[in-house]
Amino acid sequence: MLPELGRDRSFMNQWIAVCLGGAVGALLRYGVSVWVSSLARGAFPLATFVVNGTGAFALGIVATVATTRPSPAPPLWTTFLAVGLLGSFTTFSTFSWELLQLLRQGLTRVAVLYLLASLLVGMGGVLAGAWVASRGAWSPAPSAPSSSLSP
User: Fold this and answer.
1) In terms of Cα–Cα distance, which of 150, 120, 122, 137 is closest to 55?
2) CA proximity to 98, closest of 90, 86, 110
């Protein structure tokens, strides 16, 4: 059951963090998509591919910092970044739609390439981000890992 909005300030702060992060992430996604689309033409959906790959990398950093050691930022920042900004920046629904369109157009090889490359870049991005975060400026002693980024 959701807490009453007027009585739980922490709950409202998390909602605000998600909303603000979502607005920033959506604008970033739009900007990156327009920019990448202006640079490359062709059947391969490069803009969504780039957005999802960079988003996976960024989420790897944020999630690793937030779940494996004392975070250098308040938990509200993790909610802002992981749930709001990166949640709206990356887009599985667009990826799925573009994949369907490639299949409908008979571009099966491009569709398979897009599917496999997206999975590899997504996992590779998260792994690379986690690796960077575990060896970067966030080097205090690790705390007990958490399994979720849920607010």
Assistant:
1) 122
2) 110
